[in-house]
Write a structure and sequence with these properties.
The chain is an alpha/beta fold. The protein contains 15 helices and 14 strands. The strands form 2 sheets. Strands 1, 2, 3, 4, 5, 6, 7 and 8 form an 8-stranded mixed β-sheet that branches. The chain has a 6-stranded mixed β-sheet with strand order 10-9-11-12-13-14. The chain is elongated. Bound molecules: 2-acetamido-2-deoxy-beta-D-glucopyranose (NAG) (2 copies).
């Protein structure tokens, strides 16, 4: 307690010194002290006044000389390596600036962003002052000038090149999921059910259109999940630079893949969202995105039996849960043909038994709407490791929902495992006739890729998968 008091006293004294300095050296600055944590009304983005402008001063005679500059802050606990919420982030001639007297209270530069270059062996992505710098109020007039163009609302800045954007899993399962997860850490601070959607995604290092995936899924789904949100690219950033003025973003989520990987958990799970797993968020935090997207793509929100919206024991409205096998037999990484056939027979047998409805799909043969509808109706999806399993993002969570990911035996990666945890689906790594599955707080140790990982002769023992699915659908619910 004493330590707390003295630290805060020191803080207060320090703040006062800063205050005097500011008054001496930069009379025009409008002060918002204390500047470390803003009050708890964080998402009040629709306040009538332009945040950053000191209202009291505005009414005075000094109006013309006041500056819009206020200190940069991190709202709530919405911060982890590579995903940082920042209120009042400045931009000048392509460089981002954090205005603060407390440099050390912010994450290190390399945890905020990285050089937006393609990563690879021997490539150093350590950012420089040209990417982001800290500026003190004393230096601000020289660095930032005396006024700023105000970009209102919430901007998600994806500060990467396109290298890992053009894939369904990397875009939706890491970039978008990660930003939404860390952003939702704010919900406990503001007691909000749903946070406002961003006003814009900004991709300063991506030429127009170059973030889109070849399968053409990412962008259409963005329009469905964020119908109100603009997606701006490099030309927007360049437009701002051409104005030559300082820009201030009211609220930002700054996302950087290489910085996210610098989190200690990055070398445990090897995924961009590994560190984000350490940020506590309310359960079901993804539901607003899932339900908006599914409703906008399919026209309604399917309620599978067993999901929280329907009665589990009665099987919903008398319907059976749907088990969907996402076949990759038309692609490179695939099952041994006879194992695929036996898997289909085993799952068809479950259907005949009356345990579930069984469906087999090849995603590449369906249009976007059909793909979303199939997973939105499913309780369980089964498939070889691959992008089809990213579709679990749109499968409703329930005590019975599950993802069966078939690997070459003993291989393991966390891509769809980590997604399943975020969604509230149980994940089973399938190694032919055995299963790797872990409860809360427990994880598979390490990742493993054999040279068969991407092979075309992955074994699976269908009857074992069918038996595990039977247990998942019929046994009393765990937990
Ligand atoms: C703007 O940045 C570029 C490099 O990014 C630099 O060459 C130029 O001098 C800068 N202009 C000003 C006015 O600072
Ligand atoms: C897969 O499991 C089945 C059933 O246990 C077994 O007969 C078969 O040999 C296994 N295949 C491989 C490649 O291990």
């Amino acid at each position: 307690m004493m330590r707390y008091l003295s630290r805060n006293l020191g803080y207060f004294v320090c703040a006062n010194i800063v205050l005097s300095l500011l008054i001496l050296n930069w009379r025009e600055v409008s002060l918002h002290l204390p500047f470390r944590r803003p009050p708890t009304n964080l998402p009040a983005l629709n306040r009538p006044i332009s945040p950053g402008v000191n209202v009291e001063l505005l009414s005075g005679p000094e109006t013309e000389t006041i500056s819009q500059f206020v200190f940069t802050t991190i709202p709530g606990r919405a911060v982890v390596h590579g995903f940082t919420m920042l209120d009042k982030l400045y931009l000048k001639n392509g460089t981002l600036y954090i205005l603060t007297t407390e440099h050390e209270k912010f994450p290190q530069r390399e945890h905020l962003l990285s050089k937006p270059i393609n990563v690879g062996p021997g490539i150093d992505t350590t950012p420089t002052k040209e990417n982001l710098d800290f500026v003190s109020p004393r230096d601000a007039p020289e660095v930032l000038g005396d006024y700023a163009l105000h970009i209102p609302g919430f901007t998600v800045i994806l500060y990467d090149g396109p290298q890992f954007m053009t894939h369904y899993y990397h875009w939706w399962g890491e970039i978008i999921l990660g930003f939404w997860r860390v952003y939702n850490a704010l919900r406990e601070d503001v007691a909000a059910e749903v946070l406002p959607r961003p006003n814009r995604f900004l991709l300063p290092n991506v030429a127009p259109g170059k973030w889109r995936d070849r399968a053409g899924v990412d962008a259409p789904l963005m329009r469905a999940a964020f119908p109100d949100t603009l997606i701006e690219e490099q030309d927007y950033w360049e437009d701002l630079a051409k104005l030559g003025t300082t820009v201030v973003f009211e609220r930002v989520m700054l996302v950087s893949r290489a910085s996210a990987h610098r989190h200690p958990l990055g070398s445990v799970w090897y995924k961009m969202i590994a560190g984000a797993m350490a940020v506590g968020v309310p359960e079901g935090y993804w539901n607003p995105i899932r339900s908006t997207l599914v409703q906008n793509v399919v026209g309604y929100l399917p309620v599978p039996p067993g999901s929280s919206e329907s009665s589990i024991s009665q099987g919903g409205r008398g319907e059976l849960p749907i088990v969907t096998y996402i076949s990759r037999q038309g692609g490179g990484r695939r099952l041994i043909t006879s194992d695929h056939d036996r898997l289909v027979e085993s799952l068809e047998a479950l259907d005949k038994e009356g345990i579930c409805k069984f469906r087999i799909v090849q995603m590449e043969k369906l249009n976007v709407k059909q793909q979303i509808e199939v997973v939105a109706e499913s309780t369980i999806i089964v498939g070889v490791h691959g992008n089809g399993l990213t579709h679990q993002l749109w499968m409703p969570p329930s005590p019975r929902s599950a993802v069966f990911e078939i690997f070459y035996p003993n291989d393991f990666t966390f891509d769809y495992e980590m997604l399943a945890r975020n969604m509230g689906h149980k994940h089973y790594g399938v190694w032919n006739d055995t299963f790797e599955t872990y409860g809360k707080g427990d994880y598979h140790k390490g990742v493993h890729f054999s040279d068969q990982f991407h092979g075309s002769a992955i074994p699976v023992y269908g009857p074992a998968v069918a038996q595990k699915i039977r247990e998942r659908l019929v046994d009393p619910i765990e937990d």
